Amino acid sequence: MLYESTRGRTRPVTVSEALKLGIAPDGGLFVPECLPVLSPDQLTGAAAADYQQRAARILELFLTDFSPGEISESVTRAYNAGKFDNPDVAPVRTVAPNLHFLELWHGPTYAFKDMALQILPYLLMKAVASTGETAEIVILVATSGDTGKAALEGFRDVTGTRIIVFFPAAGVSEIQRLQMVTQEGGNVHVVAVRGNFDDTQSGVKALFTDPSVNDALQQRGHRFSSANSINWGRLVPQIVYYFSAYLDLQDREAISPGQAVNFVVPTGNFGNILASFYARCMGLPVNRLICAANRNNVLTDFIRTGTYDRNRTFYRTISPSMDILISSNLERLLYELTGRNAPQVDRWMAELRETGRYQVDPRTREQVAHHFWSDFADEDETEAEIASTWQEHHYLIDTHTAVGKAVLNKYRAATGDHTPAIVVSTASPFKFNQAVARSLLGRDAVAGRNEFELLEALAAFTGLEIPSGLRDLDKKPVLHTRVVGKEEMKQVVLDILG
Ligand SMILES: *Cc1c(COP(=O)(O)O)cnc(C)c1O
Questions:
Q1: Would you tell me which of 69, 176, 200, 297 could form a disulfide with 293, CB atoms 3.0–4.6 Å apart?
Q2: In whole angstroms, what is the distance from residue 23 CA to residue 235 CA?
Q3: Do 436 and 351 belong together in one domain?
């Protein structure tokens, strides 16, 4: 199976090349030239399998130049008890007959990015080796929080790689900062940048394309690569858990074989929900994909009107991992829904670059509405949802997941559709403890207390255990102390690799 670019101006490549390149040379995103389809028998046959076996089965369909041994080794190294604190890896919690939560936060950093970033390094290294590359791979990451830590955990001590993570010194939470600056591993480097996330991200983008930096790297036997969310290697592991959740519910007889479900996905960059769309195209019985947004509701407007318009106020919310105005992975959806019309996708993306908006044709708009439904939840609704889900179900959810649950309520009220719903739970409630504690304990109980005191307060109130990696974070030694200006980022990379 070859991979083609959504913009149609790159020759098709093998999956190994697609993983190594990350983004297509014409600026488009790589997609498989056709989507494999599973028969109902194939689907049922995987019911008894564990998460690793299910993952291998899905990955084999896409990673066609990997051997079965390479795939099973990658899966075993990524999804094991040393890395995930739940034996099911991605367990489904049923809180009411038609209401389930798919918990994607049992990995080392307590957010769903681990599901892909735990396995990506192994896939990437095998891809790199098979394309004859001998240089040491240097992963550069600019992060506003979750991705940086997940990438550090994924790449730590992976032979043949180094990872350098830049984060905005004043732009991440104290827990997120401590998670990164206490990172262990022989090949990891963490650098704070004086500035905001945009400064950090544009600095990293400039490094990727700076010929003098790339020349210097080549001479020292290094080569840049990227682990960002448009790499196909981030998407394909996300398809797995949609199948896995369905099979778990079927196993428990919560649904009958072939019965359709709805997935509710808290969305930012459109990666996670796109994986659910691919699962549906592959034969998973899905009725509706519900796209949940926060106040940065550019996707809700797009799904309702067919017009994507990023010219709007950007809000910093209590669900920060969804604070995004350009959802890069939407490009892959448009490619599928236009019948793989690359010139058309290319034109819309050019309009987005030049004017910040584009409008799809009526047929594509209809296709979008056929598969997706969307609404958003503001800050007050999000906090109220955390409290009511705790009161009604004795189940604690984080702010991102609460956006999903609040939007599910709106969907059910608007449509009367009570199809079994699986809400994708993207982070541990302890990771975003400030807003979660405020929702449960009230504003006064939270005022003046730091994040570690709030972890304790939340655990005391709910009887839940604080995840081990967060509990003693303030007592771990700080291993990374570099703080640089934006203009020093190039020099610091050369120093690190020197
Ligand atoms: C990244 C992230 C999201 C958004 O996922 P996308 O694939 O970007 O749509 C939602 N919740 C959490 C906790 C995340 O880290």
A1: 297
A2: 13
A3: no
- Is 489 among the domain residues? no
Q: What tens digit of pLDDT does each residue of 182-209 get?
A: 999 999 999 999 988 778 888 888 898 8
State whether 284 and 381 are in the same domain: yes
- The token pair at 419 is 């199809």
Q: 425 C-alpha vs ligand 1 centroid, how far in Å?
A: 10
pLDDT of residue 76: 97
Choose the residue to mutate in 105, 144, 272 for probing ligand 1, maximizing ligand atoms within 8 Å of C-beta: 272
In a shared domain, residues 441 and 381: no
Distance of CA 94 from the midpoint of ligand 1 (Å)? 22
The closest-lying atom of ligand 1 relative to the alpha carbon of residue 267 is 9
- Report if residue 308 sits inside a domain: yes
Among 175, 330, 400, the mutation site with the greatest number of ligand 1 atoms within 8 A of its Cβ is: 400
Shared domain for 435 and 425, answered yes or no, is no
pLDDT, tens only, 79-108: 999 999 999 999 999 999 999 999 999 999
Atom of ligand 1 nearest to the CA of 432: 13
Residue 202 lies in a domain: no
Instruction: Please tell me whether residues 303 and 448 are part of one structural domain.
Output: no
> In ligand 1, which atom is closest to the CA atom of 272?
7
What does the alpha-carbon distance between residue 27 and residue 397 come to, in Å, rounded to a whole number?
37
The set of catalytic residues is: 113
* Nearest Cα residue to 361 out of 277, 309, 305: 305
DSSP string, 347-415: HHHHHHHHHSEEE--HHHHHHHHHHEEEEE--HHHHHHHHHHHHHHH-----HHHHHHHHHHHHHHHHH
pTM: 0.95
Distance 229 CA to ligand 1 centre (A): 10
User: How many angstroms separate the alpha carbon of residue 149 from the centre of ligand 1?
Assistant: 14
Number of domains comprising the chain:
2
313 and 444 assigned to the same domain: no
The answer to whether the CB of 116 falls within 8 A of the CB of 146 is no
CA geometry: angle at 375 spanning 371 and 379, to 5°? 150
In short, whether 399's Cβ falls inside 6 Å of ligand 1 is: no
Looking up residue 426, the CATH number of its domain turns out to be 3.40.50.1100
Which residue range forms the structural domain that includes residue 316?
A: 91-110+235-430
Q: How confident is the model at residue 29 (pLDDT cuts 50, 70, 90)?
A: very high
β-pairing, 30-32 vs 357-359, is: unpaired
